[in-house]
Amino acid sequence: MAAVAPAPLLDEFLAAYYRRHPVGATFIGVHDYDDRLPDYSARGVDEALAGMDSLRGRLRALPPEPPASSEALDRTLADGCLEIERWELASEHFHRGNPCVYTGEAVFGVIALLLRDFAPPSQRGEAAVARMRAIPRLLAQGTANVRRAPRAWVERAIRECAGARALFERGIAIAARDGAIRDPQLSTAAVAAAAAFAEFRAYLERDLAPYAHDRYACGGEAFDQLVRRGHLLAVDAAAIRGAAQEQLAVCETALDSRAGEFEARSWRDALARLADRHPTVEQYYGRYSEVWDAARAAAETRGLVTWPDYPVRFVPQPEWVRAAAPSLYFLPYRSPAPYDRLPIVEYLVPPIDGAMAPDEQTRRLRATNDSVIKLNHVIHHGGLGHQVQNWHAQRAASRIGRIAAVDGAARITLLCGGTMAEGWACYATDLMDEIGFLTPLERYAQIHARLRMAARALIDIDLHHGVCSLDDAAAFYERRAGLSAEAARAEAVKNSMFPGTAMMYMVGTNLIHELRRDLSRSPAFDLRGFHDRFLSFGSVPVAWACAAMREEYADRSGR
């Protein structure tokens, strides 16, 4: 009986999670709560805490499962997720002190209903009306709960209010015109939603901005909790920081020593040349599919992985979101909803067309040049990286591993999926480098990508341990990682909001490389088989997957 006991509690864990996070549930493909937004009232939070404490107690009272089983893993992950969420509900980083929690959930609650054709337009329109009508209540909770906030979070929330108003004042009408959603009450509900955002912005500017502070650190104790309970890492922040410093130094040396190969005075000058290599306006949209097809063919020819039949269609960003997107956390690629199982994934390409002014066309083409299309949009996101990993995650034995890395309003569903999702996507680009799919300058850019991963990990730790300020973090990104002032500031702000997140790129990638290096010593090692098995675990902590695979290889070789 012990083997079946955890399943009902895991059902309860997931059901309660979806109730508490209805917007995230929509992105996951669970549609029981498509008409709702989160409840951050005092009563709602108290009920959530009581439910989480009860569930944790019952999870811990269960008899033990075999350590390597998916049930044991899910029980560990569920307990860690509940512990982390309990900390979040008590901290100043989320609903009690971050206005972006409210702006993000409110606007993406509606966007989530527009992005995918998981139901008829009338059904999604009805849900959108219900969510728009719930926006004034949610933003009023934000006004009641957030009485002081960090300066950068207030500024970001103000920008998100502007994006939300663009969506509700213009975008909803365009979506209805184009048939994305339908409901006779859309217009009235959108007007009320826009008015609620205008009122919330006034509160931010009048009552929060003048008294904003510059305290962003979550503290060492909370950070270690995220490392241990979220990522299941046995090492502490100091060890991760040391590895990041070492990787940063190695990458800087490599970049400096090799700049001359490109007849450049510095690595910054060399990498700047990537912007010159871009398609024409006429070639632009087709370039994505061309590179995707070539990347898949190369990966299959070299036996990197069993590539699933899970096509990506590159389409222009929808007109209904174009005015809003620059002010929001609007992603071109979102991990597909595991429980919608739509046959084709739409990748929303940054729009460039002949109606734009020539200078704007050139600016966008340089920003979305051939290397960005290949390294970021195709390999990292739409191809061997996230897309292939997401297909495997949807079929994982771990039920938490199926959903953990699904993108929500502002971050992935559960922290525990991060080292796998981002670690594999970064590792995938290294793989395509290994087989010669990158140009010499793109290979050189990969050294810079590893430098940026190390810089992110370092700032993640230093910022949340109070070692550096937000301004210090942004300056570091400019000085050491070569980011523009705007990009450096945006990265630092994102790091400040989600502790323990920026480090997962470097940690996950390095753990995968270490595992492959160790297991490749076995006579039974097969690269495709290694990757297929590794991905089969789903979006679970890489540290756990590595331990499981080491155990499997030890058993196979008779220890």
Automatic annotation (TrEMBL):
Q: Which InterPro entries match?
A: DUF885
Give any Pfam family that matches.
Answer: DUF885
Q: Which PANTHER family match?
A: DUF885 DOMAIN-CONTAINING PROTEIN (PTHR33361:SF2), GLR0591 PROTEIN (PTHR33361)
According to UniProt, the name of this protein is DUF885 domain-containing protein
Organism listed in the record: Candidatus Segetimicrobium genomatis
